[in-house]
């Protein structure tokens, strides 16, 4: 039996969190949702197997979240998404080891492929 991988979803938009959570559960993953980067960091004592995070969020954006996670030695795969993707941000997060940088709305098949690559 395959283990149930835990994927953390960090996005300040409740609708996005809910829809991605439903998609991930339908793909066989356990989805844990967080409304902010700080809420995710507060729960980091139980790290996920993969992180799916928005870039544009108040207080701490996804770019800064990635820097903080790397500074803490986190090595789980990270997938970033943005409704306003720019080459500069894409290049920055990818240079730091991101698995993917996806434009919102995220294509379910594309996300599924990246999650499979990260976890299976």
UniProtKB/TrEMBL annotation:
User: Which residue range or ranges hold the Response regulatory domain?
Assistant: 6-119
Q: Which UniProt keywords apply?
A: Phosphoprotein
* Short name of any one Pfam family annotated for the protein: Response_reg
Q: Coiled coil located at which positions?
A: none
Using the record, list the residue span of the signal peptide; answer none if the entry has no such feature: none
Kindly list the positions at which 4-aspartylphosphate occurs in this protein.
54
Instruction: Extract the InterPro entries matched here.
Output: Bact_response_regulator, CheY-like_superfamily, Sig_transdc_resp-reg_receiver
The yes or no answer to whether the keyword Acetylation is present is no
- Keyword hit for Secreted: no
Q: Which PANTHER family match?
A: CHEMOTAXIS TWO-COMPONENT RESPONSE REGULATOR, STRESS RESPONSE REGULATOR PROTEIN 1
* The protein, known as: Response regulator
Q: Which organism is it from?
A: Stenotrophomonas oahuensis
């Amino acid at each position: 039996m395959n283990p149930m991988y835990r994927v953390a979803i960090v996005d300040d938009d409740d609708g996005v969190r809910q829809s991605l959570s439903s998609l991930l559960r339908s793909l066989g993953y356990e989805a844990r949702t967080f409304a902010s980067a700080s809420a995710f960091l507060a729960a980091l004592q139980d790290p996920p197997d993969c992180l799916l995070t928005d870039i544009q969020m108040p207080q701490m954006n996804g770019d800064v979240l990635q820097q903080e996670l790397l500074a803490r030695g986190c090595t789980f795969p990270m997938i970033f998404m943005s409704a306003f993707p720019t080459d500069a941000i894409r290049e920055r997060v990818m240079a730091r080891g991101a698995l993917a940088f996806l434009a919102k709305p995220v294509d379910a098949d594309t996300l599924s492929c990246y999650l499979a690559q990260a976890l299976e």
